Amino acid sequence: MDRCILVINCGSSSLKMAIFSSKCEFIASAIAERLGQPGASASVKGRRTEVTLPQHATHADALSALIECFHENNTITNGLLAIGHRVVHGGETFSQPALIDDTVIESIRACENLAPLHNPVGLAGIEATRSLFPDVPQIAVFDTAFHQSLPPVAYLYALPRYLYMEHGVRRYGFHGTSHRFMLTEAARILQKHEADTSIISAHLGNGCSVTAIRNGKSVDTSMGLTPLEGLVMGTRSGDVDPGLFDYLRRKGFSAETVHNILNQESGLLGLSGITNDMRTLIEQADDGSEAAQQALDVFCFRLARYIGAMMASLEQLDALVFTGGIGENSERVRARTLDHLLLLGFKIDTPANRVHGDASGGHIEATASRFPILVIPTNEELVIAQAALKGAKNVHD
Ligand code: AMP
């Protein structure tokens, strides 16, 4: 067995790891959750191997425990070829994956205030693997990188210019790795070159964003300075009137409380008062919960509005693409969203939409639809593994 590629994705309180072969074939994955909290847990997927973690285990604790477990399982016996890290915010510095060295680490650190929940844990993961595997090339893959092609009309807020020039206040966009993968997959399915492919990609998971890709380049996206802007998400509000901040401040809410409300208590959870989980929400709506139905309706309506808005950036549209846990699995969300877009010419084929409700992927448009509509399972880990392999090859060549 040859050397493997390790992919690491540090969330605010979670750690996901995946192992790929040197040909980027998936081998194994693991997850640690509730890190930094009581009851932190970790397990290797598929094998149901539970890994014991200390109370309040950190990302570094979980990482070494899971690596140890992969060693015991003989998953990485021949060592590692490369390590790929997902990094949420690369600011304006990174438009490509980067081979990690001290300068890259400093640049990631400089973006910490743009992603305070994510970049510090991403760095913790990088530092932990650098000390565990000092000789293995490590590559950072940024959520923001794919959106560095956004034109100024799409990335500038109508704010005083110095906020952009001196404080970096602009729209960056996120989920770039997934949108990038949608481009590759859509081009493959449509048998086109990526550079000639224009799509609208809707990544709908716990976080949600929609991106306009024109001739292979991201030209508009719904997330902005932070991953809070845009669509309704699991617990995030997406767009609100910025006047809300002043209004709530006058009502006695602190900035921190408003931040927590918008990030953790809003979205599907806030609207329904029941859950942030779309599957449960749909069950509740079917059981007669009006609040659940309304949350679903607001989610789909906002999404439809954004898909419409993305048309402003395109000269042609080769496909509308759905992905992410919701986009891949929920025929209801897809159908309801597209009902709002009949005037633009999107028309779903109900049986095809049902068949592709199992994330198998494929075309779901009706013959009369003006545009193809695709369901494509995302695979961010694979994109990171491919980037890591490419980065490592450059080092070895
Ligand atoms: P992700 O963050 O991509 O893992 O997506 C998580 C979201 O996908 C959650 O809201 C899940 O409820 C949702 N999801 C997963 N499977 C289904 C399904 N069969 N129907 C509706 N939503 C689903």
Describe this structure in words.
- The protein is of the alpha/beta class.
- Helix content is 39%, strand content 18%.
- The chain contains 15 helices and 14 strands.
- The chain has helices at residues 59-72, 102-110, 119-132, 152-155, 161-167, 176-190, 243-250, 255-264, 267-272, 278-286, 290-310, 324-329, 331-339, 350-355, 380-396, and strands spanning 4-10, 15-20, 26-33, 41-44, 49-51, 80-87, 98-99, 138-142, 199-204, 208-214, 217-221, 319-323, 362-363, 373-375.
- Strands 5-4-3-2-1-6-8-7 form an 8-stranded mixed sheet, with helices on both faces. It has a 6-stranded mixed sheet with strand order 11-10-9-12-14-13, sandwiched between helices.
- The longest helix has 21 residues, at 290-310.
- The radius of gyration is 21 Å and the shape is globular.
- The model has no long low-confidence stretch (mean pLDDT 93).
- Residues 205-206, 234, 277-279, 282, 324-326, 329-330 line the site of adenosine monophosphate.
Summary keywords:
globular; alpha/beta; eight-stranded mixed β-sheet; six-stranded mixed β-sheet; binds adenosine monophosphate; 14 strands; 397 residues
Quick summary:
This protein is of the alpha/beta class. It is built from 15 helices and 14 strands. It is globular, with a radius of gyration of 21 Å.
Multimeric state: single chain
Residue ranges: pLDDT <50 for 5 or more in a row?
Answer: none
Give the SSE string.
EEEEEHEEHHEHHHEEEHHHHHEHHHEEH
Mean pLDDT over the full residue set = 93
Rounded Rg: 21 Å
Q: What's the total count of β strands?
A: 14
How much helix, percentage-wise, in residues? 25-40%
